[in-house]
Specification:
The protein has 12 helices and 9 strands. By secondary structure, the chain is α/β, with parallel strands linked by helices. It has one domain: Vaccinia Virus protein VP39 (Rossmann fold, 3-Layer(aba) Sandwich), CATH 3.40.50.150. It is globular. 40% of the residues are buried.
């Protein structure tokens, strides 16, 4: 399904459930360094865009672009695979949890590399990270993620250079409601307002999602979830495979 249709369907309440987390933002901003201007590819509602420099957003979905707040960077309606900018127009190109939605990842990454004179900065999940408890209840989500996420070594090959890889543990009180954000708050996944903006739960078959919800609710009520995973409640953050990866220009000087 084309990307705009996906987010036109599931993105109506995106900004309510997907709010920028300052700790993730700090990791992305540090990776961007002083590069300017910045293009944000697959920009959505504008989370994680730097506010201290010129930014241009690229977003193919009208539903998503309409949720950008007043004062946000201007948004160009385009796809990652065909960025309407000249070579080296930007100091850096960034993308946050977006590559897995592209129809042609190789082309999209090549376009980011083409328009960025210094670096490409991505926030991604390494699909080779072991499954965690959510996948126990929603195996269809695990299958979906495994099929669409790009391993880091493949990202490096597509970008044509080695990657700097920065692990980003997910805080227990993460404010950005992507699918791993509530790893210590299992009850949250039962709330339609929480899971509907999560593509990993919204895009699996309804019957499989409903069965997973039933099993999760049963295990929470019986205490089984706490017996198996209650040790997580003592943690403040957890490494679930999320990474900031950076591809620097080959001509960049240290």
């Amino acid at each position: 399904m084309p990307v705009p249709l996906v987010y036109d369907r599931i993105g109506g309440q995106y900004r309510e459930g997907r709010r920028e987390d300052p700790r993730i933002a700090a990791a992305i901003l540090a990776a961007l360094g002083s590069a300017s201007p910045v293009v944000n590819v697959g920009a959505g509602a504008g989370s994680y865009e730097p506010r201290d420099r010129v930014v241009v957003a690229v977003e193919p979905s009208a539903v998503m672009a309409a949720q950008r707040p007043p004062g946000a960077a201007p948004a160009v309606r385009a796809k990652a695979e065909a960025l309407p900018f000249g070579d080296g127009t930007f100091g850096a190109a960034m993308g946050v949890l977006t590559v897995h939605h592209w129809g042609d990842r190789a082309r999209g990454l090549a376009e980011m590399r083409r328009v960025a004179s210094d670096s490409v900065v991505l926030f991604v999940r390494d699909p080779r990270t072991p499954a965690w408890w959510l996948h126990h209840y929603f195996p269809a989500t695990w299958r979906l993620e495994a099929s669409r996420e790009t391993p880091l070594d493949q990202l490096a090959r597509l970008l044509g250079q080695p990657l700097e890889v920065i692990p980003v543990p997910i805080p227990a009180d993460c404010t950005d409601g992507f699918n791993a954000a509530y790893w210590r708050r299992p009850d949250a996944y039962l709330d339609p307002g929480v899971w509907r903006p999560m593509s990993a739960l919204a895009l699996i078959p309804d019957a499989e999602r409903e069965e997973g919800m039933r099993r999760l609710r049963t295990d929470l009520d019986s205490g089984e979830w706490h017996r198996q995973w209650g040790h997580l409640l003592a943690l403040d953050e957890l490494d679930l495979g999320y990474r900031v990866v950076v591809a620097r220009a080959k001509t960049r000087r240290n």
